[in-house]
Design goal:
Distance between the termini: 40 Å
Order of helices and strands: HEEHEHHEHHEHEHEHHEH
Structural class: alpha/beta
Strand order of the largest sheet: 3-4-5-6-7-8
Shape: globular
Length: 291
Protein backbone atom coordinates (compact mmCIF):
# COMPACT_ATOMS: atom_id res chain seq x y z
CA UNK A 1 0.00 0.00 0.00
CA UNK A 2 2.46 2.65 -1.19
CA UNK A 3 -0.03 5.53 -0.90
CA UNK A 4 0.65 5.67 2.85
CA UNK A 5 3.73 7.81 2.25
CA UNK A 6 7.36 7.77 1.04
CA UNK A 7 8.25 5.29 3.77
CA UNK A 8 5.79 2.77 2.25
CA UNK A 9 6.83 3.20 -1.38
CA UNK A 10 9.31 0.95 -3.19
CA UNK A 11 12.59 2.52 -2.08
CA UNK A 12 11.50 3.79 1.33
CA UNK A 13 9.95 0.47 2.30
CA UNK A 14 12.98 -1.45 1.08
CA UNK A 15 15.30 0.61 3.30
CA UNK A 16 13.51 -1.09 6.22
CA UNK A 17 15.13 -4.36 5.12
CA UNK A 18 18.71 -3.04 5.25
CA UNK A 19 20.84 -4.55 8.01
CA UNK A 20 23.45 -2.36 9.67
CA UNK A 21 22.90 0.72 7.48
CA UNK A 22 21.27 4.02 8.49
CA UNK A 23 19.15 6.01 6.06
CA UNK A 24 17.60 9.48 5.85
CA UNK A 25 15.00 10.99 3.51
CA UNK A 26 16.40 14.09 1.79
CA UNK A 27 14.66 16.41 -0.73
CA UNK A 28 16.54 14.53 -3.46
CA UNK A 29 15.50 11.12 -2.11
CA UNK A 30 16.75 8.46 0.27
CA UNK A 31 20.39 8.75 1.38
CA UNK A 32 22.77 6.63 3.44
CA UNK A 33 23.72 8.44 6.65
CA UNK A 34 25.39 7.90 10.01
CA UNK A 35 22.10 7.75 11.94
CA UNK A 36 18.59 6.77 10.92
CA UNK A 37 16.10 9.60 10.53
CA UNK A 38 12.47 9.66 11.63
CA UNK A 39 11.44 8.63 8.10
CA UNK A 40 13.66 5.55 8.17
CA UNK A 41 12.38 4.57 11.60
CA UNK A 42 8.84 5.02 10.28
CA UNK A 43 9.62 2.73 7.34
CA UNK A 44 10.88 0.08 9.76
CA UNK A 45 7.92 0.37 12.13
CA UNK A 46 5.45 0.24 9.22
CA UNK A 47 7.03 -2.94 7.90
CA UNK A 48 6.97 -4.47 11.38
CA UNK A 49 3.30 -3.56 11.76
CA UNK A 50 2.47 -5.11 8.40
CA UNK A 51 4.25 -8.32 9.40
CA UNK A 52 2.22 -8.45 12.60
CA UNK A 53 -0.98 -8.16 10.57
CA UNK A 54 0.21 -10.83 8.15
CA UNK A 55 0.90 -13.19 11.04
CA UNK A 56 -2.55 -12.55 12.49
CA UNK A 57 -4.44 -13.16 9.24
CA UNK A 58 -2.31 -16.06 8.00
CA UNK A 59 -2.49 -18.25 11.09
CA UNK A 60 -3.19 -21.80 9.93
CA UNK A 61 -2.49 -20.95 6.28
CA UNK A 62 -0.31 -23.40 4.36
CA UNK A 63 0.81 -22.21 0.94
CA UNK A 64 2.89 -19.62 -0.89
CA UNK A 65 3.58 -16.12 0.43
CA UNK A 66 5.51 -13.65 -1.72
CA UNK A 67 7.63 -10.97 -0.10
CA UNK A 68 8.53 -8.09 -2.45
CA UNK A 69 11.48 -5.72 -1.99
CA UNK A 70 13.53 -3.49 -4.28
CA UNK A 71 16.51 -5.37 -5.68
CA UNK A 72 20.11 -4.33 -4.98
CA UNK A 73 20.62 -2.59 -8.31
CA UNK A 74 17.44 -0.56 -8.19
CA UNK A 75 18.30 0.49 -4.63
CA UNK A 76 21.82 1.46 -5.74
CA UNK A 77 20.32 3.46 -8.61
CA UNK A 78 17.80 5.37 -6.49
CA UNK A 79 19.67 5.91 -3.22
CA UNK A 80 22.47 8.41 -2.57
CA UNK A 81 25.77 8.10 -0.80
CA UNK A 82 26.36 10.22 2.35
CA UNK A 83 28.16 12.91 0.35
CA UNK A 84 25.76 12.88 -2.55
CA UNK A 85 25.34 11.18 -5.93
CA UNK A 86 24.00 7.71 -6.39
CA UNK A 87 25.30 4.61 -4.67
CA UNK A 88 25.70 3.00 -8.09
CA UNK A 89 28.66 5.33 -8.77
CA UNK A 90 30.80 3.65 -6.08
CA UNK A 91 31.74 -0.03 -6.37
CA UNK A 92 32.37 -0.39 -2.63
CA UNK A 93 29.09 1.31 -1.70
CA UNK A 94 27.02 -0.81 -4.05
CA UNK A 95 28.67 -3.97 -2.69
CA UNK A 96 27.92 -2.93 0.90
CA UNK A 97 24.33 -2.10 0.00
CA UNK A 98 23.81 -5.46 -1.73
CA UNK A 99 25.21 -7.39 1.23
CA UNK A 100 23.16 -5.37 3.72
CA UNK A 101 19.99 -6.02 1.74
CA UNK A 102 20.69 -9.75 1.49
CA UNK A 103 21.36 -10.00 5.23
CA UNK A 104 18.23 -8.05 6.11
CA UNK A 105 15.99 -10.17 3.89
CA UNK A 106 17.57 -13.33 5.32
CA UNK A 107 16.81 -12.20 8.86
CA UNK A 108 13.23 -11.41 7.93
CA UNK A 109 12.62 -14.71 6.16
CA UNK A 110 13.95 -16.56 9.20
CA UNK A 111 11.58 -14.60 11.43
CA UNK A 112 8.62 -15.28 9.16
CA UNK A 113 9.55 -18.95 9.16
CA UNK A 114 9.19 -18.94 12.94
CA UNK A 115 5.96 -16.93 12.91
CA UNK A 116 4.30 -18.86 10.08
CA UNK A 117 6.00 -22.26 9.83
CA UNK A 118 3.57 -23.66 7.24
CA UNK A 119 4.01 -21.00 4.54
CA UNK A 120 6.21 -21.37 1.45
CA UNK A 121 8.13 -18.11 1.14
CA UNK A 122 9.05 -16.60 -2.22
CA UNK A 123 11.25 -13.49 -2.40
CA UNK A 124 10.61 -11.08 -5.28
CA UNK A 125 13.29 -8.50 -6.10
CA UNK A 126 11.81 -5.54 -7.98
CA UNK A 127 14.46 -4.33 -10.44
CA UNK A 128 12.92 -1.74 -12.79
CA UNK A 129 16.28 0.09 -13.01
CA UNK A 130 18.34 -2.94 -14.00
CA UNK A 131 18.45 -2.21 -17.77
CA UNK A 132 19.55 1.38 -17.03
CA UNK A 133 22.34 0.13 -14.76
CA UNK A 134 23.63 -2.20 -17.48
CA UNK A 135 23.12 0.33 -20.27
CA UNK A 136 24.75 3.32 -18.60
CA UNK A 137 21.69 5.55 -18.97
CA UNK A 138 21.39 6.67 -15.33
CA UNK A 139 21.80 10.43 -14.98
CA UNK A 140 24.29 11.83 -12.47
CA UNK A 141 23.16 14.19 -9.71
CA UNK A 142 23.82 17.21 -11.92
CA UNK A 143 21.88 15.71 -14.80
CA UNK A 144 24.66 16.73 -17.18
CA UNK A 145 26.15 13.29 -17.71
CA UNK A 146 25.48 9.59 -17.21
CA UNK A 147 26.92 7.03 -14.85
CA UNK A 148 29.13 4.45 -16.45
CA UNK A 149 27.46 1.10 -17.03
CA UNK A 150 28.07 -1.59 -14.45
CA UNK A 151 29.59 -4.66 -16.07
CA UNK A 152 27.32 -7.72 -16.37
CA UNK A 153 29.58 -9.98 -14.23
CA UNK A 154 29.28 -7.57 -11.29
CA UNK A 155 25.51 -7.22 -11.74
CA UNK A 156 25.13 -10.97 -11.92
CA UNK A 157 27.43 -11.46 -8.94
CA UNK A 158 25.44 -9.05 -6.79
CA UNK A 159 22.21 -10.88 -7.55
CA UNK A 160 23.83 -14.28 -7.04
CA UNK A 161 25.03 -13.18 -3.61
CA UNK A 162 21.44 -12.45 -2.61
CA UNK A 163 20.25 -15.78 -4.06
CA UNK A 164 22.90 -17.76 -2.19
CA UNK A 165 22.35 -15.90 1.08
CA UNK A 166 18.62 -16.65 0.96
CA UNK A 167 18.92 -20.28 -0.14
CA UNK A 168 16.85 -22.47 -0.04
CA UNK A 169 14.16 -19.77 -0.28
CA UNK A 170 13.58 -19.18 -4.01
CA UNK A 171 14.26 -15.70 -5.40
CA UNK A 172 12.57 -14.20 -8.46
CA UNK A 173 13.17 -10.86 -10.20
CA UNK A 174 10.50 -8.54 -11.55
CA UNK A 175 11.69 -6.15 -14.28
CA UNK A 176 8.90 -4.40 -16.17
CA UNK A 177 11.25 -2.10 -18.12
CA UNK A 178 12.30 -2.59 -21.72
CA UNK A 179 15.46 -4.64 -22.14
CA UNK A 180 15.02 -6.89 -19.12
CA UNK A 181 18.23 -9.02 -19.01
CA UNK A 182 16.50 -12.40 -18.89
CA UNK A 183 19.62 -14.40 -19.78
CA UNK A 184 21.76 -12.65 -17.16
CA UNK A 185 19.11 -13.30 -14.51
CA UNK A 186 18.97 -16.97 -15.43
CA UNK A 187 22.74 -17.37 -15.07
CA UNK A 188 22.61 -15.58 -11.71
CA UNK A 189 20.55 -18.44 -10.28
CA UNK A 190 17.22 -16.63 -10.25
CA UNK A 191 14.29 -19.08 -9.98
CA UNK A 192 11.87 -16.95 -12.00
CA UNK A 193 11.76 -13.77 -14.06
CA UNK A 194 8.67 -11.54 -14.32
CA UNK A 195 8.47 -9.24 -17.35
CA UNK A 196 6.00 -7.03 -19.23
CA UNK A 197 4.97 -8.77 -22.46
CA UNK A 198 4.74 -5.39 -24.25
CA UNK A 199 8.40 -4.65 -23.53
CA UNK A 200 9.83 -7.85 -25.05
CA UNK A 201 11.67 -7.78 -28.38
CA UNK A 202 12.61 -10.68 -30.65
CA UNK A 203 15.92 -11.30 -28.88
CA UNK A 204 14.15 -11.16 -25.52
CA UNK A 205 11.81 -13.97 -26.61
CA UNK A 206 14.83 -16.14 -27.45
CA UNK A 207 16.13 -15.59 -23.93
CA UNK A 208 12.67 -16.39 -22.52
CA UNK A 209 12.63 -19.69 -24.43
CA UNK A 210 16.14 -20.61 -23.25
CA UNK A 211 15.22 -19.82 -19.65
CA UNK A 212 12.04 -21.90 -19.80
CA UNK A 213 13.99 -24.84 -21.22
CA UNK A 214 16.55 -24.43 -18.40
CA UNK A 215 13.82 -24.77 -15.77
CA UNK A 216 13.31 -21.09 -14.93
CA UNK A 217 9.69 -20.00 -14.77
CA UNK A 218 8.62 -16.81 -16.51
CA UNK A 219 5.98 -14.44 -15.17
CA UNK A 220 4.37 -13.03 -18.31
CA UNK A 221 2.86 -9.60 -17.65
CA UNK A 222 0.00 -9.92 -20.13
CA UNK A 223 -2.71 -7.95 -18.30
CA UNK A 224 -2.13 -4.18 -18.61
CA UNK A 225 -2.84 -2.21 -15.46
CA UNK A 226 -3.96 0.89 -17.39
CA UNK A 227 -6.87 -0.65 -19.29
CA UNK A 228 -9.24 -3.62 -18.84
CA UNK A 229 -8.91 -6.74 -20.96
CA UNK A 230 -10.99 -9.90 -20.96
CA UNK A 231 -9.58 -13.37 -20.28
CA UNK A 232 -9.74 -14.36 -23.98
CA UNK A 233 -7.65 -11.39 -25.06
CA UNK A 234 -5.11 -11.92 -22.29
CA UNK A 235 -4.83 -15.58 -23.30
CA UNK A 236 -4.27 -14.65 -26.95
CA UNK A 237 -1.44 -12.31 -25.95
CA UNK A 238 0.34 -15.24 -24.31
CA UNK A 239 -0.52 -18.04 -26.74
CA UNK A 240 0.74 -16.22 -29.83
CA UNK A 241 4.38 -15.89 -28.71
CA UNK A 242 4.39 -19.34 -27.12
CA UNK A 243 3.32 -20.93 -30.39
CA UNK A 244 5.94 -18.93 -32.28
CA UNK A 245 8.61 -20.29 -29.95
CA UNK A 246 7.51 -23.86 -30.62
CA UNK A 247 8.00 -24.98 -27.03
CA UNK A 248 6.83 -28.37 -25.83
CA UNK A 249 3.75 -28.11 -23.57
CA UNK A 250 5.61 -29.12 -20.36
CA UNK A 251 8.17 -26.37 -21.01
CA UNK A 252 5.57 -23.75 -21.95
CA UNK A 253 3.67 -24.65 -18.78
CA UNK A 254 6.38 -22.83 -16.78
CA UNK A 255 4.74 -19.59 -17.89
CA UNK A 256 2.81 -17.78 -15.16
CA UNK A 257 0.35 -15.14 -16.38
CA UNK A 258 0.54 -11.94 -14.32
CA UNK A 259 -0.38 -8.26 -14.41
CA UNK A 260 2.08 -6.16 -16.41
CA UNK A 261 3.04 -4.41 -13.19
CA UNK A 262 2.04 -4.68 -9.54
CA UNK A 263 -1.43 -4.21 -8.07
CA UNK A 264 -0.27 -2.36 -4.95
CA UNK A 265 -2.10 0.82 -5.95
CA UNK A 266 -5.24 -0.89 -7.22
CA UNK A 267 -8.50 -0.88 -5.32
CA UNK A 268 -9.48 -4.10 -3.61
CA UNK A 269 -12.27 -4.77 -6.11
CA UNK A 270 -9.99 -3.92 -9.02
CA UNK A 271 -7.30 -6.28 -7.78
CA UNK A 272 -9.83 -9.10 -7.35
CA UNK A 273 -11.16 -8.55 -10.90
CA UNK A 274 -7.62 -8.60 -12.29
CA UNK A 275 -6.77 -11.86 -10.53
CA UNK A 276 -10.00 -13.51 -11.70
CA UNK A 277 -9.22 -12.43 -15.27
CA UNK A 278 -5.73 -13.90 -15.00
CA UNK A 279 -7.01 -17.16 -13.58
CA UNK A 280 -9.55 -17.54 -16.41
CA UNK A 281 -6.87 -16.66 -18.99
CA UNK A 282 -4.55 -19.28 -17.49
CA UNK A 283 -7.29 -21.92 -17.82
CA UNK A 284 -7.69 -21.01 -21.52
CA UNK A 285 -3.95 -21.15 -22.16
CA UNK A 286 -3.62 -24.49 -20.37
CA UNK A 287 -6.47 -25.98 -22.38
CA UNK A 288 -4.99 -24.72 -25.65
CA UNK A 289 -1.53 -26.04 -24.84
CA UNK A 290 -2.86 -29.48 -23.95
CA UNK A 291 -4.90 -29.64 -27.15
Amino acid sequence: LPARGPYAQLIGRSTAFLAGLAVDLQPAGWRLTDASSRDHRLAISTLRGDLDQLEEHAQGYAGPVKLSVAGPWTLASMMERPRGDRVVADSGARRDLSQSLAEGIAQLTAELGRRLPDVELLIQLDEPMLPAVLGGTLATASGLSRHRPVEPPEVSGGLRYVVERLSPTPVVVHCCAAGAPVELLRTAGIAGVLVDIDELSGADWDAVAASLEAGVWIGMGALPTDRPLGPEEVARRVLGPLRDLGLDPPVAARIVITPACGLASASRDGAVRALRTLRSAADIVTEQLVD
